[in-house]
Amino acid sequence: MAEKKVGEMNRNRTMLSAAERNLVAAAEEFGRTEVASNANRWERERRQPLEAIRKAATLGLVRIQVPVQQGGLGFSFACKMHVAEVLSRHDMAFAFALINTHNSAERLAKTGPASPRERLLPRLLSGEILGCAGLTEPGAGSDFAAIATQARRVDGGWVLNGEKAWITNAANAEVIVTYAQTDPAKGWRGIASFIVEASKPGFERRPAFELAGAHAIGAGGFVLKDYFVADADVQYGPGEAFKHALGGINGARTYVAAMACGMLEESLRLAIRHGEARRTFGQKLIEHQGWRWKLADAATDLEAARLLCDRAAALIDGEADAVLAAAQAKKFASEMIVPRLADCMQAMGAEGLKDIYPIGRHILCGRVANYVDGSTEIQNDRIGALLTKEYS
Fold it and tell me: Which of 41, 136, 252, 294 has the most crowded Cβ, counting Cβ within 10 A?
């Protein structure tokens, strides 16, 4: 068997089909040609790059897990995870925004009501419009059951009132799967989900958040004021919505962990390239033992995180219980990513501060990875709750 470089082995570490590998390769090339060359400009302009998301959609990157009969590719979760990883080598914020639009299309295709599916799915798949999920609120983040947005029953549908915040793609999304409480006395059992369209009366978009970075993520919020949702646009009724939202969180935690892997791999590559070119005290940097050891630790953490991601992805594709595996993958990856990225930057000296390299952006996005789809503390809570079951 022909010898493979480590990077090539990493890119094929799960059993993807030939068609899936081709899509990941196309995403990898798109990351090099479109994302890497523009990510700094997007940050300077403090905007979400809608044109780049539309270009990515033409490659099929919004169709990955959408069923073939609905215009998608019908590929595996593992394929989506790999796409997220290779795009995150250059800008996790862009990858996260794209994957969230994909997830909106997937939900609409697989479980969405017929009327909005026929009306909105083709526009999502083409990248004409963006999608997102409206869970988080100013007063409710990881405590999803505490959402205050209200849904009141009326003839023919529901009237929604409330505010959402810290929503990926909210700065530009047209389609938002919005979660609202129909009966506070029932707690999580009263939560339902609704297809909300930004172009309809009663929807008021808030300005995008002014963040320290990661502007391609399009984080923002919106207010619903007597927004009417017809019965035909209800995705899940009371009780069902909460369970389905939690079911999707395992996938999100897994691909966020994979995104951290993508950022660290690219940063390691840059640091090692620098170490091979720079000479100090009569030898290459990479020949100094102390210089190598920090990067050896980073490389080991990278491969450990990848194995955790692979395990979670295999469980998800096998429709098995992935709660523990996903929480462990995200906990490990999000805790190691910022210090390991800092090690890569330190290995490059002051050169690593230049914005021609993505490491500075990656460090900020590494912080983002600690919050999205459940904070690191929430992962500890999920893992801790399963200790007796797993290790008794």
Answer: 136
For 308, phi and psi rounded to 5 degrees? -65, -40
Backbone angles phi, psi at 158, to 5 degrees: -140, 150
Q: What is the pLDDT of residues 37-59, one digit of tens each?
A: 999 999 999 999 999 999 999 99
Query: Token pair of 59, please?
Result: 């490659």
pLDDT at 298: 96
Domain end, chosen from 130, 165, 185, is at 130
Cα angle 93-97-103, degrees, rounded to a multiple of 5: 140
Range of the structural domain that residue 122 is part of: 6-130
Query: Which parts of the chain have pLDDT scores under 50?
Result: 1-12
Phi, psi (degrees; rounded to nearest 5) at 367: -65, -40
Q: pTM of the predicted model, to two decimals?
A: 0.91
253 and 233 both lie in a single domain: no
Helices (H), 59-157: 77-88, 92-111, 114-125
Q: How many domains, in total, are found in the chain?
A: 3
Please, is 377 exposed, middle or buried when counting C-beta atoms within 10 Å of its C-beta (0-12, 13-18, 19+)?
exposed
The pLDDT tens digits for 15-37 are: 799 999 999 999 999 999 999 99
Distance, in Å, from the CA atom of 275 to the CA atom of 270, rounded to the nearest integer, reads 9
